[in-house]
Amino acid sequence: MICYYRLSTSFGRAWRCFLQKSATHSCFPEHLPLCSVMAKTTAVVRHNIMLSFPPPSLLQTYQPYSRATSMIEDLHYMPAAEEHAENIMELLQDQFRKHEPINASINATEDDLIDVFRDDVKCAYTNEKYGTLAYDGNRLVGMCLCSMILNKSKDPVELDIKNLPVEMDIRKHDFAKDILNGPYKQHKANQIVVFVRTLEEIMQQMLSKYKILKMNVLSVHEDCMGKGLGKELNRRAIQIAKDEKCDYIATVATAMASQAIFRKSGWEILYEVPYSDYCENGSPVFQKLHDGCRNLELRESAASEVFQNM
């Protein structure tokens, strides 16, 4: 899916939501609710969104209480530099390859994805300022790898999502030839890359007038899953998009866990397609994903308006 949102500094519903939740517990919730989102669709890729935040006084007095929250704060966060290449590759192979549902669904091996991951690593450190690594001591336990898309066309043409070109319409096109002629020598690598790049091309054309921070990889080590690290990396990516004065931050969300993070933080779906529609020689490529995910989501969020007290 692709999703996006516009930001404001208004306070309201989230503050009331926070009071309601805190009144039912003996202590503050593990993660301070950042926002509630109200959206009214006016066009395919244009939404008027208001994000409501708790007042500054509450943010100043709020103290995280949980061990998980403390762990997240104790990690060291840094840009993805070339010196981290080996650690990034290790996390991709040992964690992302195994836990990312579409990788696991086709039983992709280290050899299947080695070339894809080499390109991911290079993209990470050549876009150093846009990515974030999370270290626990000397061990890389999480990362959010991003890159910048600068759409400089003087006459951009927005894509009509209801009338996609045949080669981009996953619902109508069989991708056997595309996979066979894909950029990598490994068949399974092409099965993944052709799918993701088709969605990214749709995203780029739908947002062809805008500067976009594209989130390429969001991965958390299994030892840190469920502790809020994915949410923190997502928050930092949104902040980078704002600092870089991007119009949008966007991603292809392939797993239920990441989709939940994006949904809860206000990202909107720009395009969504069932995995069963992506076929090779008439058969769905990705089947029985271990997390139960059935749809790929192209999600994005407007990030051009800077707000405080995030």
Automatic annotation (TrEMBL):
It holds the Pfam family Acetyltransf_1. Residues 75-291 form the N-acetyltransferase domain. Signal peptide: none annotated. This is N-acetyltransferase domain-containing protein. SUPFAM superfamilies: Acyl-CoA N-acyltransferases (Nat). GO terms for molecular function: N-acetyltransferase activity.
